[in-house]
Amino acid sequence: MTNNYYLGIDFGTSGARAIAIDKEKNIVATKQNSFTNITADELTQTWQDTLYQLIAEIPLDIRKQLQAIAINGTSSTVLLCDREGKAIAPPILYDDARGKEELEQINNIAPDNHVVVSATSSLAKLLWWQKQPYFKRASYFLHQADWLGYLLHGKLGISDYHNALKLGYDVEHLSYPIWLQKQPYSHLYPQVFTPGAVIGNLTPQQSHRFNLPANCIVRAGTTDSIAAFLASGVSQPGEAVTSLGSTLVLKLLSQTKINSALYGIYSHRIGKLWLAGGASNTGGAVLRHFFNDEQLQNLSQHIDPKTRSSLEYYPLLKPGDRFPLNDPDLAPRLSPRPTNSSDFLQGLLEGISRIEALGYQKLQELGADKLTQVYSAGGGAKNSTWQAIRQGYLNVLVTVAANTQAAYGTALLAANQTLL
Ligand SMILES: Nc1ncnc2c1ncn2[C@@H]1O[C@H](COP(=O)(O)OP(=O)(O)O)[C@@H](O)[C@H]1O
Ligand SMILES: O=C(CO)[C@H](O)[C@H](O)COP(=O)(O)O
């Protein structure tokens, strides 16, 4: 039998999704699963169970013809594993800023303006772990997508250059920089592949468990918001994708690479181009704290996007942001709170839109290509009121991306059909 299908699996902030596509990039199956109230100790087991459940739910006739699988995870969600690949401590999640204690040390070893100079960088998390008594038992430092990929291909210590960027990997020269190689914990770093590169076949055990072909390959993964970018099909410098998921992530396709630790700006490599951008802690998670999805949809219909409120919110659930203000102590601003819920929601949507506009302004000021159009992805992309508000702040055309799902972008990676 020929292997006709490709599977992309997206581990986002609030859930995981799997999308299978055919050779013409048509979606042939979609499955999803939400994470709710998981404690830190339950994370790895939940991720593993979710991965296995999603694959098992793909219809058997598709599974039997899968040619390749790729996985994306939340960027800078990291694990410390022993030599059997078992986590020796709960993973540290992407927005966990405990690494702010390590910033002084990072500033001493890393070049100015490097992406690792952030309380939430993967390197900051590794340095925090280094001080813990169990650190000596560690054999591998992995990202969420690396570990999930390992469960399928069985090879430990493998990553991709999107996930490895915030550990300090030099994506231009495709190596760990000398200053990082010199560190006493360098034996823990994963080997880094191009996203989408072939890592190897599924293990015989996994191919048997899921009824997948023995020659089904696992490709190197990417991060969740790059996967959303890949799904959009954007290919022209100047075009950008904003992910309105739990967090707000901006990605502007550019011919120039830019970095600024002050503003939390960094550039991912994407083929011959760069994805300049940053990720803010503001976004849908703040909206969801106050409103469920149905309320968001209903209340948005009562908002006139042409009028602006006088509210000047900086919507965060806890102090600290990464971009466009890289300040682990930045205070949320969510008052005064109007009695009318749609007025409050308008203030929140405007606040997030202002942060987005400031983000694109900073990217261009620092030398990224001029913004020509913004495509939206993520759960907030379906909100047309918000789209009109954002267009007012951004002054360029804002539309919904052709496909907004990170799992679809990762399926394209599995099919080797991206800019990479
Ligand atoms: N109509 C809506 N308007 C604005 N935001 C919405 C709407 N519906 C859902 N959302 C937001 O979308 C987010 C979920 O998007 P999703 O892309 O699934 O996130 P994740 O980053 O967790 O993968 C939620 O935080 C929710 O608040
Ligand atoms: O906030 C996030 C977690 O959902 C974003 O995925 C992330 O920080 C963006 O990082 P990257 O640019 O490396 O994909």
UniProtKB/TrEMBL annotation:
It catalyses: D-ribulose + ATP = D-ribulose 5-phosphate + ADP + H(+). Residues 241-415 form the Carbohydrate kinase FGGY C-terminal domain. Keywords: ATP-binding, Kinase, Nucleotide-binding, Transferase. One of its GO terms (cellular component) is cytosol. Residues 5-230 form the Carbohydrate kinase FGGY N-terminal domain. The keyword GTP-binding does not apply. The keyword Oxidoreductase does not apply. GO terms for biological process: xylulose metabolic process. Pfam families: FGGY_C, FGGY_N. Its cofactor is a divalent metal cation. One of its GO terms (molecular function) is D-xylulokinase activity. Its EC number is 2.7.1.47. InterPro entries: ATPase_NBD (IPR043129), Carb_kinase_FGGY (IPR000577), FGGY_C (IPR018485), FGGY_N (IPR018484). This is D-ribulose kinase. The lineage of its organism: Bacteria, Bacillati, Cyanobacteriota, Cyanophyceae, Pleurocapsales.
